[in-house]
Amino acid sequence: MTEALIDYGLFLAKTLTLLFGISFLLLLLVRARKAMGSWEEDRLEIVSLNKRYRSLAHQIKQASLGHKDFLKFLKAENKAKKGTDEKKKAPQKRLFVLDFHGDLKATETAELRELITCILLEAQEGDEVLLRLENAGGLVSEHGFAAAQLLRLRRQGLRLTVSVDRVAASGGYLMAAVADRIIAAPFAVLGSIGVVAQLPNFHRVLERHGIEYELHTAGEYKRTLTLFGQNTEEGRNKVREQLEAIHSLFKAFIREHRPHLDLSRVATGEYWHGQQALELGLVDAIETSDDFLLAAARERAIYKIAYHAHKRPLERLLASIQAAFRY
């Protein structure tokens, strides 16, 4: 009897501990949700890169000069800036900076389309856009839609520069090709103008274990290759035919926007690094996005803009996991 009471007491203690732990976690989640209340709505974030660069320069200047000398420097700088501002008659031209980090489904396209809409609503003559692109490619339809968003800028007369510091391959290069000008870091990866489809087939494994698989379709080519059925040569040929058709569309799009390219040379599915890509005409200059921005800051007002769409907690978790395994 005593042992039973002891066992029951231990069980009760464990249960209460578990319930307390769950309650504590729920309390933390509720508090976190309340604290995040101001972030529930979609929001547009705008950062002046001119101010950021100036702040960084001032920090270095302050560290290298004495306090009095730094104050003298600030006074002289403000005086010079005031004189320059008085001479300016026309508003300073602007450069909008966007970032796009690609994945198989080009999921950032939703934010990209909102950013482009915002820019077009406020665009003025002389404004330009820099897209910092990191994209190794993925689904044809998704990346084609992302490229169509960038075309909206071109059609409204805004000059678009795409910078590739690491990779713009396959669907990523499809997006980059829309630009007036493509710049790339020396070892950035570009190209891969091709189409691929692959899937495993478990038919023999199922057959070996006496498992039958049935697939019923209406339409001759509704399903060409399957994971579990027996694939036919006719189905394989149809898939190859479809891949060639998509490849032809890919090449036609590239030809339209970069007509000087020798597609027989570059549309082979191969990829090249920065300097090789320059020699082939895939890019227009070897330059990092950092150097481009520092040069532009001398004559333009630069604004980095980002669109943050509200996501449910589960969506945010899945997005963070996906980001961790992006490349």
Short description:
This protein has 2 domains: 43-189 and 279-324, 2-enoyl-CoA Hydratase, Chain A, domain 1, CATH 3.90.226.10; 193-269, no CATH class. Helices cover 52% and strands 15% of the residues.
Structure description:
- With 327 residues, the protein is an alpha/beta fold.
- It folds into two domains: 43-189 and 279-324, 2-enoyl-CoA Hydratase, Chain A, domain 1 (Alpha-Beta Complex); 193-269, no CATH class.
- The chain contains twelve helices and ten strands.
- It has helices at 2-35, 49-64, 67-87, 109-122, 140-155, 171-176, 203-208, 233-257, 263-266, 274-280, 289-296, 313-324; strands at 43-48, 94-101, 128-134, 159-164, 167-169, 181-184, 189-191, 271-273, 285-286, 301-308.
- Strands 1-10-2-3-4-6-9 form a seven-stranded mixed sheet, with helices on both faces.
- Helix 5 (140-155) links the parallel strand 3 (128-134) and strand 4.
- The protein is extended.
- The termini are far apart.
Biggest pleated-sheet summary: 7 strands, mixed
Q: Give the integer mean of the pLDDT values.
A: 85
Please state the second-level CATH architecture of the largest domain: Alpha-Beta Complex
Low-confidence stretches: 320-327
User: What is the total number of structural domains?
Assistant: 2
How many DSSP E strands? 10
The sequence of SSEs as H and E is HEHHEHEHEEHEEHHHEHEHEH
**Overall radius of gyration:** 28 Å
Structural class determined from secondary elements: alpha/beta
CATH topology of the largest domain: 2-enoyl-CoA Hydratase, Chain A, domain 1
CATH superfamily of the largest domain: 2-enoyl-CoA Hydratase, Chain A, domain 1
